[in-house]
């Protein structure tokens, strides 16, 4: 099992192209906060990114930056460039429809792809939500695939062709994985304490893989430690250092995530779902689910489906 791919898939992480910025100085845009993550790749030119509580940082050609928790932020052509209300209104419209935002007149010197990543609110085990507020990678990442993808992205933006939007949406998903790979390799110290940090500890990574591969197995910490040929104390200590949780706590949370998705998206009986995530009785499962989600399984099924219906209207 590819642990990262599995966790992203269950977490419902999906990327979509937002505004494509084509700008000539001066320009300034204030983006409001959003529920998902924001991403930028600089195809050409430069920009300045500002977030509350952080010093301004300059984005250079081929830089990529991820704002995992979608905070409000400002993009400007220069630190002193004014934010223009009309540009902000146009930017919101371009982001909503995945369109081009043209700012200024004359030859466009700056070309930036904006994207967003949404994830399933039913799933509490999320990779992006645990990352720092800003993940910024400079150009020339030791010949990684990220460099190649950013260059391909740049060509698509500079010379759009048929199905360019389709290509960009696929590239956005690829870019996220490549960004996470490079960040984990280049900045392992920053990764500690995030979900990705578990990939830096072989013991914990294998332990998580075992739990993800077979969540219904009647796991105990002793059984998991025995399978990994380590002691209970070593496993518990390293697991807690990497995830902030005990193996039992993590497994319960993962089981509840899997159960929540099936309750919302399938018509499987509560008994079937309970057994699929490792509970031998509906009572034990219902008690665990209520403790984790604040609702009984049946209540959660009804409320989550009603929410989806209201959202679709």
Kindly provide the radius of gyration, computed on alpha-carbon positions and rounded to a whole number of angstroms: 22 Å
- Report on the biggest sheet: 6 strands, mixed
Which CATH top level class of the largest domain fits? Answer: Mainly Beta
Number of strands: 10
What is the helix/strand order?
HEEEEEEEHEEEHHHHHHHHHH
Name the CATH superfamily assignment of the largest domain: Jelly Rolls
Characterization of this structure:
- The protein is α+β, with helices and mostly antiparallel strands and 313 residues long.
- It has two domains: 189 residues, Jelly Rolls (Sandwich); 112 residues, Orthogonal Bundle (Arc Repressor Mutant, subunit A).
- The protein is 47% helix and 17% strand.
- It has twelve helices and ten strands.
- The strands form two sheets. The protein has a six-stranded mixed sheet.
- Strand 4 and strand 5 form a beta hairpin.
- Helix 9 crosses helix 12.
- The protein starts with a helix and ends with a helix.
- The mean pLDDT is 88.
Question: Main attributes?
Answer:
single chain; 313 residues; alpha+beta; Jelly Rolls; Arc Repressor Mutant, subunit A; 10 strands
What is this structure, in a nutshell?
The protein is of the alpha+beta class. The chain folds into two domains: 3-191, Jelly Rolls, CATH 2.60.120; 201-312, Homeodomain-like (Arc Repressor Mutant, subunit A).
What secondary-structure arrangement, pairings included, does this model have?
Blueprint: H1 3-10, E1 14-23, E2 28-31, E3 37-44, E4 47-50, E5 57-59, E6 64-67, E7 73-76, H2 85-97, E8 100-103, E9 110-118, E10 135-137, H3 145-158, H4 164-186, H5 188-191, H6 202-213, H7 221-227, H8 232-243, H9 247-265, H10 270-276, H11 282-293, H12 297-312
Parallel strand pairs: 1-8
Antiparallel strand pairs: 1-9, 2-7, 3-6, 3-9, 4-5, 4-7, 6-10
Helix pairs in contact: 3-4, 7-8, 9-11, 9-12
